[in-house]
Design goal:
The chain is of the alpha/beta class. 41% of the residues lie in helices and 19% in strands. The strands form three sheets. Strands 2-1-3-4-5 form a five-stranded parallel beta sheet, sandwiched between helices. Strands 6-7-8 form a three-stranded antiparallel beta sheet, with helices on one face.
């Protein structure tokens, strides 16, 4: 598949049967896969190759693997990371959240789940669409600053937005002439995670509070649209 061409996954997994099965699946859809079960080899592979996505198996006994991931983030290397594990472990989950992991998957991996997760990881690799300065203008003298992720008010104040708030506002700005569907909002803002309408309404209220009440309008059963 063209969608996956020219992308390389570093796959770190002890179980040979499991690794061969999932590596074969990833190669089948067009990905290049570098396999290892050794953290020292992992360091060498990462140094010598362009790695687009990391798929790594973790448990509480594999401290060196978590240290490797911490090192990458310490060096501000933003390669998308997908963690696999035999069960859901609270300690690993909390660490994963702090490391901005793309997904935490429970083994055995399902084909569709793995492919969809890789697609989400690839989305993170794509450069954001350029937003022309004039397009960042909102109504009533407000504007959006995409660099600092804040709303500039008419009296010169800069109101900081959260990650989800800025993602939603940017999405609406880029599609200012169209209604953005709930599905698209879930894909971009929730990054593929499940989104409830209550959570979305809470997010919208927060943005309105930080800017102005009619910055975006709701279209019942469809989605949201930038007011201007």
């Amino acid at each position: 598949m063209d969608f996956f061409m020219n992308l390389t996954v570093l796959y770190i997994e002890d179980n040979l049967e499991c690794r061969e099965k999932n590596a074969a699946l990833m190669r089948e859809i067009g990905l290049s896969v570098l396999e290892t079960d050794n953290i020292e080899a992992t360091n060498e592979i990462f140094r010598d190759h362009k790695i687009d996505i990391i798929l790594i198996d973790l448990d509480l006994h594999k401290k060196e693997r978590m240290r490797f991931l911490h090192f990458l983030r310490y060096k501000e290397i933003i390669t998308p990371i997908i963690i696999t594990a035999d069960d859901s472990n609270k300690e690993i989950l909390l660490d994963a959240i702090n490391l901005e992991i793309t997904r935490y998957l429970i083994k055995p991996l399902k084909k569709d789940e793995l492919i969809n997760t890789i697609k989400i990881a690839i989305d993170k690799l794509l450069p954001p669409l350029p937003v022309i300065s004039i397009e960042n203008e909102l109504a009533e003298g407000y504007s959006y600053d995409p660099i600092n992720k804040c709303v500039n008010t008419p009296d010169g104040k800069a109101v900081q937005l959260t990650k989800k708030e800025s993602l939603l506002l940017e999405l609406l700005i880029k599609n200012r002439k169209h209604i953005v569907s709930f599905d698209e909002i879930e894909r971009v803002v929730w990054e593929g995670s499940s989104m409830s309408l209550d959570a979305l309404r809470t997010l919208v209220r927060s943005i309105r509070h930080k800017s102005y009440n009619h910055v975006m309008t709701s279209h019942s059963g469809i989605g949201y649209k930038l007011d201007k």
